[in-house]
Design goal:
The complex is a heterotrimer of chains A (about 250), B (about 250) and C (about 650). Chain A has about 250 residues and is an all-alpha fold. Chain A has nine helices and no strands. Classes of the chains: A mainly alpha (about 250), B alpha+beta (about 250), C alpha/beta (about 650).
């Protein structure tokens, strides 16, 4: 937008043609797109993470696959850095867009909170979960993503477990897991309603159905995530005396 | 069914007592302090909040203010917050509250007048003007000639959205509206949808964008569905807001 | 002293008021509408079943035109109506509905081909013409020869009111809601506005205008059981009466609707019966065909209401804690029809009675009983809508005795009248406002303001200990019990006497709260006083009218008496200190009628004392027709009873298949 155009908008609320800006539409759409992208990413991320449940070897192989094996000998952790960078950018962009919806003063927050407590309405309560988890992820997500960018090589059955157990990262991961699962799936539910994706002939019935499916998915993903976290904890606990040593694949032995 | 009812009207002892707590405040009186006042009364069969409030007003407290007009759920005057939920008081029966305790608040987000009375009329008129809630056409109608034919299904679809009674409940159930005063709410977005599907109206999507294409309009909606879940006319707000949003992002 | 000046002032924001406001605004007049409630909450919104207009689109409306609508309306009125006005009305109604269609009212439309309907309790298939596809549909209603009632499901008034109100907003007509007119400002027989009270601040405001229109609806709330909204107190009519020079017409003509639901009194539209619903007694027996073999449940409302009470008096009513009632059965129409076309009815029945009318058999029957529904009486006006007693004061809609309905209004003719009068009277009113200039001055205005201020103070100073709510209750009970569907001399005398006592008793009350603003008890005092005056007009008028006509039925004078009573009751309140209205009568001239009095075709046979002039006029009409030879129906009509109407509205109406014939 040129300076002239934005000055006109500043003064009149409209563009040079006397029309409303198209930006709000784009922002709304982009918020949905980035959200959906991140939700899809998380869906797979947690699934991949849970490879530890199939054993250290499975997790190791998957890690190496993401580092580019077998195309690059031994894998290239910088690929993870790059991937984390893309996600981090998307994450920041999404947070930036979603912030538009946050209560932006005490008065707004107070009004929302009191109203929510009076109303006792499930979808309104879900949004409270979303802003709380969203807010939490500003920090939790940033820590995690930064670490992945800075030390991409420290992913692996032992490295990850040591980080979680011996480096005392597990409380953060526990909170992050809960936040991210709730935020993503509630977000997906919201997208379905927002854009009327599965309205069908009876939007009301289908909304109920969507909500039920989402609740089931939240439960499944929390279970899966917690199981994986427990597995890492167990490995970390057993591995604490060898802290720092890396896992060696069965093939290399 | 009434004739099968075992209750008799003259048998007062047979009925339970209910407590109705009402928010009392007058914005007109300078030293008025907001307070809650509780009235205890006998619940008669089929009692609605309309009957209960009229009884309180005519026999217990002549100074209590509230708004009723049609008392049949069609005019939208008597919206208030009943135990936390925005509802039409005339259509709310007291016997659905098992503990017999009912708290009534005026509808939030509207200008408060006194007690349970709020100013919905001026807000709704302003909204109707802002949404240009009338047919836009260049066609001049000859009212002596046969009317323009409309597909029966289309007429029915327009009617389904035209049933809105501007009661304000969608706004009072909406977190966005609670936080952001300028949000036009489901009532406004539904209104544009109503005209968007009316074949008499020649407005383009670009023109509708000028009405609701911002964060005070459809992009302000966070899809919390308070409107959909509380609308006393069961309007399809969920799908119509989505419909307008899809239209507007394509502009 | 707060004065608001405007060109055209309209009191009342229902269909008639808003449509008139549009007429005024379209002439470039500065227009203000004042209303007790937000205008879209007006009682017009409660009209359910539909609007009559002789479009003749549906196959069941074939052959319909202004003449048929006219005849139905005149018969319905029991020859009490003004036939000139009826002609103006039927000629404009199709235009009104087409204007509303263009303004977006989503009228139910015809789909070509076969469709299943219920007629006389039986399923029938009718086939709609191809060329009618997409045109405005109509349903059957009481007292009509054709299916003529156009509708939007059972929320017709709502969609009409919203369309008209939004058109008013489009034109930037100023709407001042929560303002109540409590007195008319006038001098030398000319009206120059009203004194209104701001119902929020209590402030008195003088609205001063070149012309003033009252469109405040009816006075149903003087009855204990009424389908009317709680704002239908007749205040607009009462302030006109209180001027002493404006007269009210036929106040005793009060309609009782056959099917409000018991006990809440919420209306179940005539469309229920129009679409094929039937009435049943305690044995589940459909009794109406026994009384009215031809029209059955669809005789006019006065007739059906009387037949129902008659049947209950025979011991056939269903006992309930709220008294005896009968059943309305629409379950035979099928769930799909009910959920689409009688949606609100289902909602009302479920919410207030816990009955789903779509449930088959006895389970879905809804308890009904006749209750007050419509006020045919009101401010007596000329066909232009201007008061007969005061210049510059116009009136339209239910508040007026224009007199379209005589002694009984046909279902579907009320919202129709509201819009049509808004067009016709609105136009006359607008012209008056254009041509007239204010003749008042601030001295006069102040005098009226001061007098209202003093009156309110006086009310607050009353200290007799009585309670206004008791007085109101008593009034409503008297009206219910003694001035109801069946009336007699003794009860009416009692009613008149007791109402007069109540009116005097108002000065013996005490208002607990002395605030001038936002004091609902104070509002109640002046309103009840005004309502008592109207109640007296109704009761006194009913007592004096020793015949039975339309909705007014005297058990001691069971015949319609055209020889002595083919006239309008005119009520005035000549002195502010009077406790009784002054009655006089206005003859209805048979010699000018297009349709001289005869049997209506339904109701009790042989219950008419015919006026010999009827026959004479019939012969005259026959002669006129003969002398004309082969000419079209418009020429015949014009020769028998020429009537004035704006050129735009008098144009011929086009119909499918017949063109402009």
């Amino acid at each position: 937008m040129s300076q002239k155009e934005s000055t006109v908008e500043l003064l009149t609320g409209k563009d040079c043609e006397g029309k409303k800006s198209r930006i709000p539409a784009k922002l709304d759409w982009l918020q949905s797109v980035t959200g959906l992208f991140l939700a899809l990413f998380i869906t797979f991320h947690i699934l991949f993470e849970s490879s530890i449940l199939f054993g250290k070897e499975a997790m190791y192989k998957l890690t190496k696959m993401f580092e580019g094996e077998p195309f690059i000998e031994g894998g290239e952790p910088l690929i993870i850095t790059a991937l984390a960078f893309v996600i981090f950018s998307m994450f920041i962009f999404h947070a930036f867009l979603a912030m538009r919806k946050f209560p932006d003063s005490y008065t707004e927050y107070q009004r929302y909170r009191t109203h929510r407590k009076l109303l006792k309405h499930s979808d309104t309560n879900l949004w409270f979960i979303q802003i709380t988890t969203g807010f939490a992820m500003f920090f939790l997500g940033s820590i995690h993503l930064y670490m992945m960018m800075a030390e991409p090589e420290k992913i692996g059955p032992y490295a990850s477990s040591d980080r979680i157990f011996s480096d005392w990262m597990w409380p953060m991961y526990l909170l992050l897991l809960i936040s991210v699962v709730l935020h993503s799936w509630v977000g997906v539910y919201r997208l379905i309603i927002k854009w009327g994706w599965f309205d069908g002939k009876d939007p009301r019935k289908n909304r109920k159905r969507s909500k039920m499916i989402i609740k089931t998915l939240i439960a499944l993903y929390l279970l899966l995530g917690l199981a994986s976290l427990t597995a890492y904890m167990k490995i970390g606990y057993e591995h604490q005396d060898d802290y720092g040593s890396r896992y060696i694949s069965e093939n290399h032995k | 069914m009434i004739n099968k009812s075992t209750q008799k009207l003259d048998n007062i002892e047979g009925y339970r007592e209910i407590d109705i707590t009402v928010f009392r405040y007058s914005s007109q009186v300078k030293d008025s302090k907001p307070e809650f006042q509780t009235y205890r009364l006998v619940e008669t069969p089929g009692m609605t909040l309309y009957i209960a409030l009229i009884k309180i007003w005519s026999t217990m407290d002549h100074h209590l203010s509230f708004d009723f007009v049609c008392r049949a759920g069609i005019c939208g005057s008597c919206s208030m917050v009943v135990n936390g939920k925005p509802r039409l008081a005339c259509k709310t029966r007291t016997n659905e509250f098992e503990d017999g305790k009912i708290t009534l608040l005026p509808l939030p987000t509207f200008k408060h007048i006194k007690d349970l009375s709020v100013d919905t009329g001026n807000w709704m008129n302003a909204m109707s003007k802002q949404m240009e809630s009338w047919i836009h056409t260049k066609e001049v109608t000859d009212i002596s000639a046969i009317e323009k034919p409309i597909e029966p299904d289309v007429a029915q679809a327009v009617f389904d959205l035209d049933r809105c009674i501007e009661c304000g409940i969608c706004l009072a159930s909406c977190s966005t509206k609670i936080m952001r005063e300028d949000f036009v709410g489901a009532v406004g977005i539904n209104r544009t949808a109503r005209f968007a599907i009316d074949p008499h109206d020649e407005r383009t999507d670009e023109e509708f964008y000028e009405l609701i294409g911002d964060d005070e309009g459809v992009f302000g909606c966070m899809s919390l569905m308070g409107c959909e879940d509380h609308c006393p006319k069961d309007l399809p707000l969920q799908s119509k807001i989505a419909y307008m949003r899809r239209k507007m992002v394509k502009v | 002293m707060k004065i608001i000046y405007t060109d055209a002032l309209i009191v009342g924001g229902g269909l008639a008021g808003l449509r008139s406001a549009i007429a005024a605004r379209d002439k470039g007049l500065d227009t203000i509408v004042i209303s007790m409630v937000p205008v879209k909450r007006s009682h017009s919104a409660a009209a359910q079943g539909g609007m009559q207009a002789s479009l003749g689109n549906s196959v069941k409306g074939e052959g319909d035109n202004e003449d048929v609508h006219f005849a139905d309306t005149v018969k319905g009125s029991d020859w009490g109506c003004d036939q000139d006005v009826a002609r103006m009305f039927v000629t404009t109604a199709p235009k009104a509905i087409r204007e509303l269609a263009a303004w977006g009212v989503p009228w139910n439309r015809i789909g070509k081909g076969p469709r299943e309907v219920i007629i006389n309790g039986e399923k029938e298939t009718i086939v709609e013409k191809d060329e009618a596809h997409g045109l405005i549909n109509a349903r059957d209603f009481g007292g009509t020869k054709k299916w003529r009632t156009c509708y939007t499901s059972d929320a017709t008034g709502h969609t009409m009111l919203y369309a008209v109100a939004n058109e008013a907003l489009k034109r930037d007509i100023e709407i001042h809601d929560r303002k109540e007119a409590i007195s008319i400002i006038h001098e030398n027989g000319i009206c120059s506005g009203v004194v209104a009270r701001d119902l929020i601040t209590g402030e008195l405001i003088a609205y001063v205008a070149r012309g003033t229109m009252i469109a405040t609806g009816g006075y149903g709330r003087i009855y204990k059981q009424s389908t009317n909204a709680i704002i239908c107190k007749g205040i607009g009519i009462a302030i006109a009466l209180e001027t002493g020079i404006v007269s009210l017409g036929n106040m005793e003509a009060v309609q009782f609707h056959p099917t409000p639901i018991v006990p809440s009194g919420i209306l179940l539209t005539e469309g229920c019966r129009g679409d094929g619903g039937v009435l049943r007694d305690k044995d589940g027996y459909r009794f109406m065909p026994d009384y009215e073999p031809e029209k059955k449940e669809l005789a006019s409302r006065d007739v059906v209401s009387r037949r129902m009470i008659e049947h209950i008096r025979k011991g056939k009513g269903v006992k309930s804690p709220y008294g005896d009632h009968l059943w309305l059965d629409i379950s035979i129409l099928g769930r799909e029809h009910i959920e689409k076309n009688l949606h609100d009815i289902q909602d009302i029945s479920k919410t207030f009675n816990g009955i789903d009318p779509a449930d088959e058999g006895e389970k879905g029957w809804m308890p009904v009983l006749p209750m007050q529904h419509y006020s045919m009486g009101g401010i007596r006006v000329k066909p232009t809508g201007e008061s007969t007693g005061m210049k510059g004061l116009f009136c339209a809609g239910e508040a007026a005795c224009w007199d379209l309905h005589g002694f009984n209004r046909l279902g579907g003719n009320s919202v129709s009248e509201a819009v049509v009068a808004g067009m016709i009277v609105g136009e006359y009113f607008a012209n008056y406002c254009v041509e007239t200039h204010l003749q008042t001055n601030t001295f006069t205005i102040q005098r009226f303001l001061e007098s209202q201020k003093a009156y309110l103070q006086e009310i607050l100073s009353y200290d007799g200990g009585r309670n206004i709510f008791d007085i109101k209750d008593r009034m409503r009970t008297i009206m219910q019990e003694k001035v109801g569907v069946f009336r007699n001399g003794k009860d009416l005398t009692d009613a008149v006497n007791e109402l007069e006592d109540l009116l005097k008793m108002v000065k013996e009350i005490t208002v607990t709260d002395k605030a001038l603003c936002n004091n609902p008890e104070l509002n109640e005092v002046y309103r009840v006083t005004k309502m008592l005056k109207l109640a007296l007009c109704v009761a006194k008028g009913a007592l004096e009218r020793t015949e039975s006509r339309g909705a007014h039925f005297r058990e001691d004078f069971t015949k319609r008496d055209d020889e002595n009573w083919l006239k309008r009751t005119i009520a005035t309140w000549t002195n502010p200190n009077d406790t009784m209205p002054t009655l006089s009568y206005e003859e209805i001239d048979i010699n000018k009628m297009e349709m001289p009095p005869a049997f209506r075709g339904y109701g009790k046979k042989g219950a008419i004392i015919l006026n010999p002039l009827s026959e004479k006029r019939e012969e005259e009409i026959a002669k006129i027709k003969e002398s004309l030879g082969e000419v079209d129906r418009f020429t015949v009509q014009e020769a028998i009873m020429p009537f004035d109407l704006q050129k735009e509205y008098k144009r011929k109406n086009e119909r499918v298949g017949v063109g402009y014939d």
